[in-house]
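Priority: medium. Attachment 1 of 2:
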């Protein structure tokens, strides 16, 4: 009979850095512990939370400034602490989700979470994001030096850190290659604005970083510069990087980005143009966004600049050409007797070979 894992047993496994036994059944509370939705030891506070009324979940990792571990022993204890073990599980969960959404293939993509003044945990290099375990996760400093972890850190961690160094609110980054948004990256197209309210609130304007070699200092500088004011950045000929206050928040923005690009792409093929709401309406959405603690550098722009999509060129829509007007050269050419005779000859041959029943 399969073993049933309770929340208490799940907390103990997370503390040890272990996964549930194969074939075991997780209670809903135990599943929340393994996915990081509930931190170990949090179950005792559930009744208190209920008495306090409805809440908004907060997954942000918080630390006391100046409290980074220094010695190898302190770093090892920190890296294996229940709080970091829970984050490792959460990163693996996000990795599985971006893999299942076809946002990454092979060993593509990477994930980081800032956990101190000078500390970041990240995914390793050369691993499928759909099949990671907590034991695969690495600990590095803000210069990219690996401090803990059995596997080598991703070479693109410095691109994430390029944002984190410039934008203190960037506590987690996710990089992937979602097909619709990456198509914009390959086409060299920055997505337009003022089309879907949710995108303006939760994404803001999507940034566009010029191509630099992945993993290079130049790419870190370029993406970091753009990422200060844009929580979602399309990297030319590469993919997408997003950031948020926690890794779940960052992942949502990856979904938002690809969904938005997909919708814009489909709408651009319908032949009726892309309709936008007014700059005044966009101001309302920017106020909502900033009220939620998210940055937006469009606050001081003039109205004529807020919904300026003049650089956006939708894809070509294929249409059946209109019939040429009578008397035009094209019409004369279409009525050439030689052409009509050839068409009639071919028609007669077809009818002779396939007579009507």
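Attachment 2 of 2:
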């Amino acid at each position: 009979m399969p073993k049933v894992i309770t929340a208490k047993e799940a907390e103990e496994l997370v503390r040890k850095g272990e996964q549930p036994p194969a074939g075991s059944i997780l209670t809903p509370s135990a599943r929340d512990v393994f996915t990081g939705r509930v931190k170990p030891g949090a179950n005792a506070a559930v009744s208190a939370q209920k008495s306090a009324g409805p809440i908004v979940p907060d997954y942000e990792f918080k630390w006391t400034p100046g409290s980074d571990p220094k010695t190898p022993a302190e770093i090892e204890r920190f890296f294996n602490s229940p709080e970091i073990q829970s984050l490792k599980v959460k990163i693996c969960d996000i990795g599985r989700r971006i893999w299942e959404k076809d946002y990454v293939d092979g060993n593509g993509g990477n994930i980081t979470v800032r956990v101190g003044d000078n500390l970041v945990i990240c995914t390793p290099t050369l691993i499928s994001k759909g099949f990671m375990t907590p034991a695969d996760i690495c600990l590095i400093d803000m210069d990219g030096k690996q401090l803990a972890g059995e596997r080598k850190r991703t070479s693109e961690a410095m691109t994430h850190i390029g944002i984190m160094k410039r934008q203190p609110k960037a506590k987690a980054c996710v990089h992937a290659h979602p097909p619709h948004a990456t198509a914009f990256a390959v086409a060299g197209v920055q997505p337009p604005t003022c089309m879907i309210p949710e995108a303006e609130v939760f994404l803001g304007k999507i940034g566009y970083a010029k191509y630099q070699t992945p993993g290079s200092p130049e790419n870190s500088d370029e993406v970091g510069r753009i990422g200060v004011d844009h929580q979602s950045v399309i990297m030319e000929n590469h993919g997408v990087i997003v950031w948020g206050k926690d890794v779940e928040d960052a992942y949502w923005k990856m979904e938002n980005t690809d969904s938005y690009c997909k919708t814009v792409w489909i709408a651009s093929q319908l032949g009726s143009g892309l309709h936008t709401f007014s700059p005044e309406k966009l101001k309302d959405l920017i106020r909502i966004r900033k009220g939620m603690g998210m940055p937006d550098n469009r606050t001081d722009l003039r109205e004529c600049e807020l919904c300026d999509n003049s650089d956006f060129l939708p894809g070509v829509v294929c249409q059946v050409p209109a019939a040429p007007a009578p008397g035009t050269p094209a019409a004369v050419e279409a009525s050439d007797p030689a052409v009509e005779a050839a068409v009639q000859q071919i028609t007669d041959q077809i009818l002779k070979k396939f007579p009507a029943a």
